[in-house]
Write a structure and sequence with these properties.
Chain B: Belongs to the bacterial solute-binding protein 3 family. Chain B: This is Transporter substrate-binding domain-containing protein. The structure holds 2 protein chains of 2 kinds. Chain A contains 14 helices and 8 strands. In chain A, strand 6 and strand 7 form a beta hairpin. In chain A, helix 4 runs antiparallel to helix 5 and helix 7 packs antiparallel against helix 8. Classes of the chains: A alpha+beta, B alpha/beta.
Chain lengths: 399, 344
């Protein structure tokens, strides 16, 4: 519109007539898009109305009212308090949190593995690079659902609770999962977590200041040890101030299962390993491509000015490689999140698993699927947005 | 990924199919479309031994499968004019709602919620059962009370999932559910000891023990039936004639047992002068045409499929691999729940 307004107000161009507006390129572009948008919205409304009317004609209940009803079923793993008298809405929330939990752990694991294997693939060590190639070919070319089932079967065939594999009385591995001792609940735990978060924020700030300093004076300050000190030292200090509680909650066999401590279920582990290994194969290839995209001349030039080897990687290769790596990495993260819906096959109570149950209990398939679709769409879009912001940070800035 | 896609495609299926099939569901001409198609589309369980599962020759066999055949026999005089559509728990309701199948005889528990919110009508139950538990022999579990703190394997989308929550809550006990959709994975999780117990409709458990475990002797059915699970054929609401046909096919098998009419003696019973037998076999009255069928519809059902006792014994009787006491599934005259409404 600004172009149109400008030409009218400018007075130098011919006066705007109806014809000139209709034939103007700007008007046509906008008009076409408005018409297209209207058609899409109308088609959507038509389909929606049809579904609602037909469902009503068949006496099938519609609407999202069921979300307020009691769910009346239990869930095996609940990051927040939940029981069968809670609502379907809360059950969906539990499912969402479980999806996020396994996705976040999966992204972390896949990134660490993928980057390690990616670096190993371009390594000059023949054996290392061949092993990495073999790994990539295996995890990339076996369907992810088979990998998840494979790990589920492996974990299920571990010994039962009474024949648990004992790690010094503090951790036990059974077909019910890995149970390990954790510090007994103490009011100081909250402040310790905040101290750790503060340590992370301070290290990032310190790294930023150190870089500013380096760019101004050319003098390098290593922030490695100060960062470690902040991230681990601060929580330790808070722990000491809190009276240094050392009580442990140790898992013990009671009845059918281990009670006390923390248990990581085989379903979670199988799903996590399955989707993370699968994604790590693709990430390794993306990292390799990124590293190889950096011209050799850049590395030679960096070496010729006497830059230390680890600085070559950090300040010359990686910044250029990340520009190539980040966009496809984003797709891998998004597809890992979607792959977590394989949970249904092994019985991890993720969003889809719980959504399916809700759908079957209430029969409200359209609504339950709409909820699931909206959640996946939102989570995927948020992930992409974060990665796009990061991409802008590492992208070439042309000045 | 496959599962979200499966769910999504079913959502799309409901959406599109409701658009496409509303006319059929409203105007009540399921019978006409079945006749013009030349076969009944019957939604069955993919693998529940005793109810519906392919046998060693690859033919569908089971009590519910026989009810699909009985409906075909009543309509076409030919029990083979039926196509079986194997449906998972989550597929079953969209499939009947959208018209993908004409009737659902698939271990569906008749409940008020399903009757009202899902747009279904339930014919008389063909099987009365309830939640049961299978446990490992030698685990020391003898009653359901011994399961406090146990891990329980359960299939999603079943009334069982709710029952087990209620059974444990009402006894003040705790448990951890492991919910796995795929039946093979579910049974495998139980057999390898991931779960202390497997819960399903009690009538389904002997089949699991006989067919899905490596050593049936290693597993014990806990005594008692928990919860009410009347398993009934379901049809879409709004087609009274079709609903009547399914309903009376079920009653015909009950009445035949009560009157002593079997697939063996139905021919000679045709000359009976007992008016109840005559009405059933169509030698008097016009009960068949009132349903929109031939007069000897029930004769075809009984000669080709059998009466209730014959159907039951074929799949759950002493000579079948899946043996189960008739329990509640006996005639009202024997203290059971089978009570065929009279044909008159």
């Amino acid at each position: 519109m600004s172009h149109l307004d400008g030409s009218i107000r400018g007075g130098q161009k011919p006066r705007a007539t109806l014809g000139s507006i209709i034939y103007s390129k700007t008007f046509r572009t906008i008009a076409t898009q408005v018409v297209m948008a209207a058609l899409v919205v109308m088609a959507g409304l038509f389909l929606y109305n049809n579904v609602v009317e037909n469902l009503r004609a068949q006496s099938i209940a519609t609407g999202f009212g069921f979300l307020q009803q009691d769910a009346q079923f239990d869930i095996g793993e609940t990051p927040i308090a939940y029981n069968a008298t809670d609502s379907y809405a809360r059950a969906f929330l539990v499912g969402l949190l479980n999806t996020l939990r396994v996705s976040a752990a999966g992204i972390l694991l896949a990134t660490i593995l993928g980057f390690s294997v990616g670096f190993a693939r371009v390594s000059s060590n023949w054996l290392l690079s061949k092993v990495a190639t073999g790994y990539v070919e295996i995890v990339r070319n076996v369907p992810v659902i088979l990998q998840v089932i494979f790990w589920a079967v492996v974990l299920r065939n571990l010994p039962g609770a009474r024949e648990a594999i004992d790690f010094g009385g503090f951790a036990f591995l059974t077909n019910r999962g890995l149970s390990f001792a954790v510090p007994a609940t103490d009011p100081i735990h909250g402040p310790i977590i905040y101290a750790c978060l503060a340590g992370i924020v301070l290290s990032i700030l310190g790294g930023y200041l150190a870089r500013r300093h380096r760019e101004k004076t050319g003098r390098y300050i290593s922030m490695l040890w100060p960062s470690i000190g902040l991230i681990f030292g601060l929580p330790a200090l808070v722990w000491l101030l809190g009276g240094a509680p050392t009580a442990l909650s140790v898992p013990a066999l009671k009845g059918f299962n281990f009670r006390g401590g923390v248990t990581i279920s085989p379903e979670f582990t199988a799903l996590l390993i399955g989707i993370a290994l699968y994604a790590s194969g693709f990430i390794a290839e993306i990292v390799r491509a990124g590293l190889q995209a950096t011209p050799t001349g850049q590395i030679e030039a960096a070496r010729s000015i006497g830059l230390r080897t680890r600085f070559v990687m950090r300040y010359v290769v990686l910044p250029q490689a990340l520009r190539v790596i980040v966009p496809p990495l984003t797709s891998q993260y998004v597809s890992l999140i979607k792959n977590s819906s394989i949970a249904v096959v092994v019985g991890y109570p993720d969003l889809v698993n719980i959504g399916n149950t809700a759908m079957n209990q209430t029969g409200q398939a359209v609504e339950a699927i709409a909820v699931m679709m909206m959640v996946y769409l939102t989570v995927s879009l948020i992930t992409s947005t974060f990665m796009n912001v990061y991409n802008r940070l590492v992208a070439i800035k042309e000045r | 990924m496959t599962n979200i896609f499966k769910s999504l495609s079913y959502g799309a299926l409901i959406g599109v199919a409701t658009l496409a099939t509303t006319a059929q569901a409203d105007s009540g001409d399921t019978l006409a479309s079945v006749k013009s198609r030349g076969e009944v589309l019957c939604g069955v369980h993919p693998a529940r031994h005793g109810f519906a599962a392919p046998d060693s020759q690859g033919n569908w066999a089971g009590l519910e499968v026989d009810y699909c055949r009985a409906i075909a026999a009543a309509i076409f005089g030919d029990a083979d004019k039926v196509r079986f559509v194997a449906l998972s728990s989550q597929q079953r309701f969209p499939a009947i709602q959208s018209g993908e199948v004409d009737v659902l005889v698939r271990n569906v528990t008749a409940t008020l919620g399903r009757d009202t919110a899902l747009g279904l009508n339930f014919a008389p139950p063909v099987f009365y059962t309830g939640t049961g538990f299978l446990v490992h022999a030698g685990s020391g579990v003898e009653t359901v009370e011994d399961l406090d703190g146990a891990t329980i394997c359960v299939a999603p989308g079943s009334t069982t999932e709710r029952n087990v929550a209620q059974i444990f809550a009402s006894r003040g006990m705790e448990y951890t559910p492991v919910v796995i959709e795929n039946n093979k994975q579910l049974v495998d999780a139980y057999v390898t000891g991931r779960c202390d117990a497997l819960t399903k409709d009690k009538a389904a458990l002997p089949g699991v023990r006989a067919y899905d475990t490596t050593d049936p002797e290693e597993h014990v059915l806990l005594p008692g039936i928990f919860s009410k699970e009347p398993l009934a054929p379901a049809v879409r609401q709004g087609d009274d004639q079709w609903y009547d046909i399914v309903k009376w096919v079920v009653y015909a098998t009950f009445n035949a047992e009560e009157l002593g009419v079997t697939s063996e003696n139905a021919e000679e019973m045709r000359s009976s002068d007992d008016v109840d037998v005559m009405s059933l076999l169509g030698t008097t009255g016009d009960y068949g045409s009132k349903l929109g069928l031939t007069e000897d519809w029930a004769y075809d059902v009984i000669t080709q499929v059998g009466n209730y006792a014959e159907i039951y014994d074929r799949h759950f009787g002493p000579d079948s691999p899946v043996q189960l006491d008739r329990d509640l599934n006996t005639q009202w005259t024997d203290g059971g729940l089978l009570y065929g409404f009279p044909i008159k």
